[in-house]
Design goal:
By secondary structure, the chain is mostly beta strands. It has helices spanning 43-49, 144-149, and strands at residues 7-16, 22-25, 32-35, 57-62, 76-80, 95-100, 103-112, 116-120, 130-141. The mean pLDDT is 92. Bound molecules: zinc ion.
């Protein structure tokens, strides 16, 4: 069975960046199962998987625009320390939930001074090329319930 819309696809994958560092991997875990054609996978990877069959192995390089997007400078902001209230031990790398024009957003602290805190709302992988080494382990038809929910049930998928 070939990968097409409304099929459930299981893959093992390893994600690395341009520097060859491993960012994520299914190694040692169940394969990742996703419902093809429903926006559950990064667009640039999903497009390359279409038409493949179980057993295929491929390397996919995804441009930022087909991955987590380009870095948006407007999401980097200097916030007065007073906005953090009484919190005194704010450090680089801490994450906060912030309110933005697009709704709740996770920001990470990237710089701290006596007067202000710089926060970045970009996804950590924004602006990066993504390299996926993928092995397709299974392709099957989705159940009616999975199609109605828009995601996979059972091993490697959602449970409810
Ligand atoms: Zn469901």
């Amino acid at each position: 069975m070939r990968i097409a819309d409304d099929r459930v696809v299981s893959i093992h994958y390893t994600l690395t960046n341009d520097a060859g560092e491993t960012l994520d991997s299914s190694e040692g875990r169940d394969p990742l199962a996703y419902l093809h054609g429903h926006g559950n996978l990064i667009a640039g990877l999903e497009a390359e998987l279409a038409g493949r069959v179980a057993g295929d192995k491929l390397d996919v390089r995804v441009e930022p625009r087909d991955g987590y997007g380009e870095v948006d400078p407007s999401l980097v902001q200097e916030v007065p320390r007073s906005a953090f209230g009484e919190a005194s031990d704010i450090r680089v790398g801490m994450r906060f939930q912030a309110q933005s024009q697009r709704g709740p957003q996770v920001v990470v602290v990237t710089a701290v001074s006596n007067e202000s805190i710089r926060v970045d709302g970009n996804h950590p992988l924004a602006g990066q090329h993504l390299h996926f080494a993928v092995e397709i382990t299974e392709v099957r038809a989705a159940t009616d319930e999975e199609l109605a929910h828009g995601h996979v049930h059972g091993a490697g998928g959602h449970h409810h």
